[in-house]
């Protein structure tokens, strides 16, 4: 399935200007149909899986309780 720049920006939650820049830098593959750029949606599948994986990992780390430090001396 192909998406426009606007649809791709919404799908990836980044600004349209950044999508245009990534196309110019050839970081995103796109075809130009004479009127607009079309971007193949499946090229982002791996990227989105990795983003979800790292979000889950970060959430686990943030929810991990902080262990008490046995070396702390009570100076009261």
TrEMBL record:
<dbReference type="GO" id="GO:0003677">
    <property type="term" value="F:DNA binding"/>
</dbReference>
<dbReference type="InterPro" id="IPR010093">
    <property type="entry name" value="SinI_DNA-bd"/>
</dbReference>
<protein>
    <submittedName>
        <fullName>DNA binding domain-containing protein, excisionase family</fullName>
    </submittedName>
</protein>
């Amino acid at each position: 399935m192909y998406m426009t720049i606007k649809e791709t920006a919404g799908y990836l939650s980044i600004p349209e200007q950044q999508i245009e820049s990534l196309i110019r830098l050839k970081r995103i593959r796109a075809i130009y149909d004479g009127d607009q750029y079309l971007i193949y949606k499946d090229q982002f599948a791996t990227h989105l899986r990795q983003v979800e994986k790292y979000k889950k990992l970060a959430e686990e780390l943030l929810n991990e309780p902080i262990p008490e430090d046995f070396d702390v001396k009570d100076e009261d």
